[in-house]
Structures are given as structure tokens and as C-alpha cells.
Amino acid sequence: MKYVVLAIWCAGCLEHVELADDPLPGLTSLEVMPSDTSIQIALPAAAETVTFAAIGHFSDGSQRDVTADVAWLADDPVPGMFATPGSYSTSNRAGGHLAIRAEHGTVTAAATLTIRLSATLIDSAFPPPEGADGLFAGATPMPDPMKSPVIAYPAAATAFPQALAPALFQYKANPATDTYRLSFESDVLDLRVYTGSDRWRPEADAWTLIAASHRGATVTWSVDAAASTAPGPVYAGTTEPLAFADAPAPGRLFYATKSKPGTTAAVFAGELAATSADHVYPFAADTTPATNETIGTGGATMAVAYGGHLHVVDLVRSQDKATPAPMWWAAVSPDGRVVAVAAMGMLSLFDAVTGAGIGSPDGHVDLGGKQVTHPAWSPDGRQLAVTVATMITPDDLKGGAIARLPYNGNGAVGPAVIVVPSSADTDNSYAPSWSPDGAYLAFVHTTGVVKDAPGSELRLVAAAGGPPIVLQRASHQLAGMTAAMLADTTPVWSPDGRWLAFATQRPYGVVRPMAGGAQVWITALDLASGDPDPSAPAFWSAAQDLTTENVTPCWTVTPTVMQ
Fold first, then answer.
1. What is the mean pLDDT of each run of 10 residues along the chain (563 residues)?
2. Fold: same for 27-115 and 123-248
3. What is the per-residue DSSP string for 68-127?
4. Chain centre to alpha carbon of residue 366
5. H or E segment to which residue 552 belongs
6. Nearest one of 278, 317, 355 to 543, comparing CA atoms
7. Residues 454/463, Cβ–Cβ less than 8 Å
8. Which of 379, 400, 464, 497 has the most beta carbons within 10 angstroms of its beta carbon?
9. CA 267, 271, 273 angle in degrees (round to 5)?
10. Using an 8 Å Cβ cutoff, are 465 and 419 in contact?
11. Cα atoms in the 13 Å half-sphere on the side-chain side of 324
């Protein structure tokens, strides 16, 4: 399947100048013709051209064609572009509902263009038997409890950002079938894929076709099955909707791998569009475990427990500052200057450059005997969110509650303000994370022992306090089922506040069908929706090693430059 390479023209910023010769003096309004147009393209195909005209209306009552004298714009550059005034050329990379606009100064007029694409693909990685499409031609798919395929990933209503690494579509298939037809259908796309496997990963152009055609919209995908050895029935599989955001998720995602036989705990990072991660720390061939990393919002400063002690790492210069301070958990202030460290129930503050204690020689903060852990800085640097508990160990809590600690910027920390209380030793809320606007805290809740707690789930609470919001879909929704025991933990926000990454022990379709061994997943959040649960079912982050146990995700505002 071939696609036209799209070149995007972008107007730069110009100083305001007075035009000596306005080509359209007295222009009062514009009209675009046609006002509503639809085209259907069967791929592969050459680019198509849609011609628009702009009619100008003037103060003297006259009107004329001004197509060549106005600027032409479309609200989405992926489906195509205006090659010349009024002449829109499709890219054939995506369909969609486009808003077309003609403008001259402050005078504008709008029209709509709908591009509908259809295509048929043969999976080159796992090709189906010869003549696969003929097995489905003219047949009415019928459900069969034994032979119908069942979608295993992604779950219904999963929401993906744009510019994401291609998802791996997976389904449980019966051995009696060997040919599968995946369908992606909406009012702007009709895509059919034939494969001989129980999974399909789109190539880049096919993934763009699916994702970019549904910017801020949904598509329905389904899978049917047939047997090439016994042509006849087509077995109808499950059908599910998927959603796509209107923009990419910004930033870079970090995580730490847990130490296990043959490996050492280390920190990795990858772009969401990537299918692998870079080794970040330790810098050299070093077998000292590096765990519980935390990174400032600027993406340049990392605090990490290196052999159990605080190291402050300059990720840009690939340098680190060792300190003797013990570290269980830490947080880097938004300006990258202060590191808050929790260990053995105590909170300490350190200068990120010198490693010296702030406020006292060892940086210890007097909290009146309260035990705290899991510090997190507010976006303005004026507060710390922490877990307060009656008992804290490296792996467990009793009576874990979420609290805010005011900070004056000079090493002074005020008394704790409880945001999420605990009702008993077994009622544990922990691992708070601030939203980028400071309005919410994401956290984990479980009943009983904290370490690898199967029943832990993600929640939100207003930073000022209030009833917690259970992220039911993010925490428990899998393809075709809900599950209570997925061990969700350590949530962290994307820089734009629209996504939440977390570690979880849930299964990953047919590739990793059994729960166990944490991996990083991501859920969409829509806090303005008014839905009691603003989350969506989560998707697996492709920028990680499927064979390792990956924990403590961190999400930075900008990609880190490593030298």
C-alpha cells in the first residue's frame, strides 16, 4: 500500500505592516463554494484534488470570485493540503472530517470536507493462506462459542494518543481456524486486514491511517475467523470501539527495571512513539542497583537510590553527585534545586547541586514525630504531598494517608494537612502524584499489605481535599472483563495532564496472558467530561522490554539529552 509523502507548509510570524495595495478593498464577507463536500477514495490511489471557490462580497454591493486572493487553510494537515489557492490535494494518509477556511484579514468563511478511505491489507509479517479474502467473500459471519475469536487487547474504549508506537492487536483464536479478518470501520474509514496469526501490528502507514483518521474520534474494530482447510463458515468474533486523542502525548517516559537473576536494577527511558528504551543510569557498566528514580519536571535532574543511597544525577551532562544519605523514595523540586528524600519514615531536604542538607546539616525535617514517605512536589514548589502512616518499612505501611506539607522555599516545612485520611491500619492510601496544574493528586489505595498488593487501585482526589475518585476503568478494565487483582501502583501524570502512567501486573493480551511481573501502562484522563470515572481502559507502553519487570514510571516535560 503506497502513500503520498505529505509536506506541511507553516506560516511564520511576521511584523504587522500596512499593505499599500489591498487586493480586496471594501471586502465585507466571504462565501466558500461548495460549502459541504465528500469524497471516497479506494487505496492505493493517486491523490485527488478538491476545488473550492471563494466569493467575496463588498461594501458597494458587488460580489466576485476572490479564490486567488484569500488564504486557504484546513484544520488537520495529515489528510492533505492546499497546493494552490482553492485547490486541496489529498495525501491519502488519513481520512476525516475537515474544517476548511478561507480568510482575508479578519474576514473568514468556512466549509466542510469529508474524506472517506477504504483499503485492504495482507499482513506481511504473518501472511494468511492463499486466497484468504475469498474465504470471507459473500459469507455472513456467525458466532460460534468454540471457534469465534475473542479480542484480548486492547480493551473496549481504550483511548490512544496520536504519534504513538503502533498497537499490537491481539485475540484468542481456536486452533481449528487459521485465517483472520480484522476490520476497522467508521464513517471515514473502511480498512480490512487479512492475517494468519492471533495478533497484528500495523506498519507505520497503516497505523497512521487508523489513528490520524480518527483524531478526537472513535473507530470500531472487529475480528472474524475462517479455516482454509475446510472453507465454509465464517466465525464472527468480538467487536469493540477504540478512541484516539486529537494530539500526541508530550514528553518522555522513564522507568526502572527490578533486579532479578542475570540482570541489575537500572533506569531506562523511551519516547512514546518508540518500541524500545534507552539505558539511562548507571552510566557505566555498573552492577550497583539503581531504583526508585524520580525526575524533575524539566527532565534534567534525577534523584535515584543507588545502592540504597541518594545520587543526584544531571541527565544532560551524564554526571551524578553521590551522597551518604539513605534513600527509599525522593522527589526533585520543579526548579531542580531541592531533593526531598524519605527513608525510614523520615523526611530530609538536600541541595541538588552540592548534595548538602538544607535547614540542618543532615537536611532532616522535624514533623513532630509523624512518619512519612513517597514525597511529591507541587508544580509551584510550595507544597509537598506525602504518605503519612503509623508504620513505614521499605515495602509496607500501616494506616497510610495522603497529606500536604507547606514549604516556604528556605528549608522550612509546615505541619501536615490530611487530604485523604486512613480509617485503620489496613486502610492504605499512598504514592501521591500532583497533576501539572496542581488541582489533583493521583494516588494508590489498597486494603492490607502494600507491597505488590493485588487489590491496589488508582484514585484521584482534589488537592484541596474531598471525596476520592476511583479510576475504575484504568484500574480494572481488561478486554471483555473487569479484574480486581492487577496490583496497580505508582501513578505519574503526563506533562499535559491528559494521561496517567502507572505500573501494573495485568496480563497483556495473548503475548503475556498471565498476570505477574509489573509493566508500565497508560490511561487517558478526561477531567472535564463530567463522568464520575474520568479514566479509560489502559494501554501497554511499547517503549519497554517485555521480558523485564518495569516499575516507578516518571514522565518528563521534554526529551532528555544524554551525552
1. 33 36 93 98 97 98 97 97 97 98 97 98 96 92 96 98 98 97 98 98 98 98 95 95 97 88 84 93 89 92 95 92 96 95 97 91 90 97 97 94 92 93 97 98 96 94 97 97 95 97 97 90 96 98 93 81 46
2. yes
3. GGSEEEES-SSSEEEEETTEEEE-SS--EEEEEEEEETTEEEEEEEEEEEEEEEE-SSSP
4. 38
5. strand 550-556
6. 278
7. no
8. 400
9. 145
10. yes
11. 3
- What contacts 7, CB < 8 A, 6 or more positions away? 81
**Residue 148 DSSP SS3:** coil
Q: Give 484's contacts (C-beta < 8 A, 6+ positions apart).
A: 454, 455, 476
Could you tell me which of 64, 74, 61, 63 has the C-alpha nearest to residue 103? 74
Which CATH superfamily groups domain 123-248?
Immunoglobulins (2.60.40.10)
Of 301, 211, 307, 317, the closest CA to residue 254 belongs to 301
Set of cell numbers at residue 500: 496517567
Cis peptide upstream of residue 250 (ω within 30 degrees of 0)? no
Model-level pTM?
0.93
For residues 456 and 488, the answer to whether their CB atoms sit within 8 Å is yes
Rounded Cα distance, 545 and 263, in Å: 13
Beta strands in 249-356 (DSSP E): 252-257, 266-271, 278-281, 290-295, 301-306, 309-314, 319-326, 329-332, 338-343, 346-351
Question: Which CATH number, 2.120.10.30, 2.30.40.10, 3.30.1130.10, 3.10.560.10, labels domain 252-556?
Answer: 2.120.10.30
Q: Which CATH number fits domain 27-115: 3.10.450, 2.60.40, 2.40.160, 3.40.50?
A: 2.60.40
* CA distances to 168, 541, 542 from 165, in Å: 9, 8, 7
